[in-house]
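Hi R.,

Here's the chain you asked about this morning:
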Amino acid sequence: MAPTAPLTPAPQPQPRSAALRARRAARTLAAVATAAVLAGAAAPAAYADGPAAPPQPKQQKLPKGLYGTTDPQYDGVWRQSLALLAQHTVGVRPAASAVDWLAGQQCADGGFAAYRADPGKGCDAHTMRDTNQTAAAVQALAALGGHGDAVQKAVTWLKSVQHADGGWSSMPAGPGGEASDANSTAVVIGALAATGTKPESVTAKGGKSPYDALLGFRLGCDAKEAERGAFTFQLKNPAPNADATAAAVTGALGKGFVVAPAGKDADRPITAPDCAKGEVRGSDAAARTAAADGGAAWLVGQLDADGQHLRSAMPGAEQQPDVGNTADTVVALAAGAYGAEAQKPLAWLEKNAGGWAKQSGPAAYAQLIFAAHATGTDPRAFGGTDLVAALNATGPEPAGSGAPSAQKDAADGKDDGGIGMWWVIGVGLAFGAGIGFLISGRNKNKNAL
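And the predicted structure, written out as tokens:
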């Protein structure tokens, strides 16, 4: 409900928030770093008339217990939270050092920033606390147990930065601050649900709930027919957005990153918005279900001609498979028990997502594990890849697991899937366009699909 973002057409000007750039930075950070090395001299040549490629980042010593090998500046807490939550979901007991690192990132007021290099130094007014990172940490720590005080403080902080419309932005509101967005609101809903809190009970001063805000991002009968049912990222740019829609479908159903297996035989029909009968208004359970149905129907309609995956594209390039949002779509479809519709994209992920996850890092493996879990699929035999072993290999050795021993080939990521190196090289060629564009996980999706 979330960093490994697909490449999309050139975005509109975005807020300067580092937190927004971090929403799903784990989708591309590792791929960019690898592609930059592979593409090397080709990147400046490809963009001879554009900005020069930035210098390669210096190697840095990463903190003990942190998952992944890329710079954690924008996604440290996010990728750690997803990794630990995915391990817990499949019965792996994470290393104590990994859990301690995540818990140690919390500020005294309960919020989390994307990354604090020196956790011993207190947070101040310049520390950019982030609702997405905080909500992800809540979901992980609540699942792991033993961190009740930290979880409660984080939830209290999230409530303190709720907007008047009932929703959240990535960064807390303030003078000139950001408006609520669908993704941030959905991930906070997931955090509230993970702690046993009913999201509808968490209301702003004006009485608006998170569901009031979330359903406000839905494109209804006054939108173009092809856009109906989709969710937009923010109201100021009401364009259908696949990332926001997948997150909103799951959020509207009151679920977080982990969705209980619906079973492969679950087959509730998707109902697209029927404007002739009138829209279901409000934010009660019936309205939320109708919104989820509409969002799911729109997502299915955005799959390629074979119904297998969503698509994205770099500027000036042909559309390419959008692996991260396809994985999120599978989770969203499973959350609504749209079992039949989830099977084709799930099968495509099994065949093609191995190389993408290897390049993108722990959060990507976690996304695939969530998709496998939600559909009742074995993540240890996911199209020839042991996702659990591969995830474990990106961080400290787990403290324990009842799972089969890790397979070396899976941990090494030898199954590159069907979209491995060509996708990475494509990202490398785009590197010269600027790292900020490539890692602006959620924001650059605003005009996609």
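The chain has a mean pLDDT of 79.

Let me know if you need anything else.
M.
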